Amino acid sequence: MMSMGFLFLGMATKESPNWVFVAMILMALGGNQLRMSVMQFGDLFPLHRSTAITLLSGMYAASASLFLVFQYTADAGIARAHVCWVLAGISALSIFLSFIMPVHHIPVLDIYETREATKDPPPLGKSLWSGSSYLHQFWFFIMLFAINVYQQTYNVWVTGSSCSVREAGLYSMFFSYSNLFTVFFGPLGGAFTDYMVRRARDTPSEVGRRVKEIQAPFWPLLISSLATTITYACILVFRPLAVYISLVAMVVARPCVIAVSTAYLRIRFPAEHFNRLLGIYGSVSSLLMFLQYPHFMWAQHMYYPAHALVLALLVLSYTNPIHLLFTPLMRDAVVIRDQLEEEQLCPVRTLKKTFRESP
Known about the structure:
By secondary structure, the protein is mainly alpha-helical. Helix content is 71%, strand content 0%.
């Protein structure tokens, strides 16, 4: 889909612009299917699963820097069609590289024994209709909504913050270059989450350890929320300093929101629900993104109230990371997720020994 999308994009001209619609649909579908592979990719590295997941998810934030490729090749006199065909060839490499992947089933290996082999996974509704699910869906949507609105408002905002067209163009160039650095920040949240999960292994209580593992994404989620809030709040201030601050915060927020969200889902809910939950949250957020248009129209007439509302919703979304700190609530979540029996709520075991004995 990605290869065909680039091919059709190269075929689009002023005389036949309809190819753009086909190209965008194929790229959107193909890109999302590639993103869904993070589950299998992460399972290849059980002890560093969050890092692997955020590494792949965070790369999507750097995709905006592809505009630099088109910009510089156009300046060099290279036809856009030729650039698209080269990108189609590069993306087609994944078709051939997929044959070197393991032909056997990639096992879902947890770093703890969450469920006996004889037990069936809990129904999807247990995860989907939980309080954590509602909070995360709201958090995921409002974070993406804020980032998208920031990007849509950026040109108008920097124009109002600039003293000349040249200065506004400089800010636009900085925006493109800043996206190149986003790829380095996405994996940091996953690496920190893996570190906190490893620290939780020293907890003597079995349930206590699992609770701490669920709480491991707290700081990555909170920092992602803070970075997104700072990014969005800056568009209320028409000053050059606010532009620079927003770009720095955006470098952190843009890759971490998707990457940390994906890693959190893998930890918080049963592994069997991961792909479906990822698809459901993404689909719901995509539908709600249609609210961008009425918000855009509102902002044209009432700039500050429209953006202040989104800023207030961003602050409200902090309930998602904060609720992880309520240990009794997370203990109940562990019991439901792992289907623990009464006798399993109190045992103590040596975790390091268990890991050494694991195949």
